[in-house]
Amino acid sequence: MTHATPPPIQVVAHRGASEDAPEHTLAAYRKAIEDGADALECDVRLTADGHLVLVHDRRVNRTSNGRGAVSALELADLAALDFGSWKDREESPDWVADPERTSVLTLERLLELVADAGRPVQLAIETKHPTRWAGQVEERLLFLLKRFGLDAPPAEGPHSVRVMSFSARSLHRVRAAAPTVPTVYLMQFVTPRMRDGRLPAGVRIAGPGMRIVRNNPGFIRRLQDAGHPVHVWTVNEPDDVQLCADLGVEAIITNRPRQVLSQLGR
Ligand code: G3P
Ligand code: CA
Q: Which residues form the GP-PDE domain (predicted)?
């Protein structure tokens, strides 16, 4: 009897190839595409003038030479900041500023990059702290997805975009407006309500942190028994990659896409 080969584990570049280039920059995403990543992960936040930009923290202090909350700054303010040298200066004494490594990236520009990638590249977009914005993050996100024809499944193959969040409410808003866009419920802890492998209503994909996978593989099996694909973040160490592979998860989200692909024999 022959067994069907399971599809390969999807390798998702977390904030781009963020070990090699400053996170969430064009350079980090170009590198991830060159490295062969199957998908790109990004965090989206709304600026004061309504643009979705890729910044992880609430404030720009850690990843730029500026200060303040993204939500209090306009796109032009962010465009004037340097989002790269905090990493590059540390790593190279011969550092020279390169706009692709130092400029803030909008979601729109990332969607253009993916459209021009020359091969299918999926997107895993995380809405950050969307409860403060009463639906504006999701509204703007879906507007952009629609403009790029990504709000509905393609004629063939899997949906090329999914929306992730720690907020069940945010995922609910996305599904209400675009029911076919897959949603991923991110988890840092296993709450008593989820212990038996149940996710918030309507969510198909589980997004546990690597710590949950290490400490509670039984929970991962319960998610799988309940029919949920599992996408794990952030998986950088070879032992963790192996554990995810042994458990048969569907996606590994990593800062090191090249190394993970090579460990998985790709
Ligand atoms: O991919 C999910 C993961 O990115 C969630 O954590 O803090 O890196 O956004 P964080
Ligand atoms: Ca994220």
A: 9-264
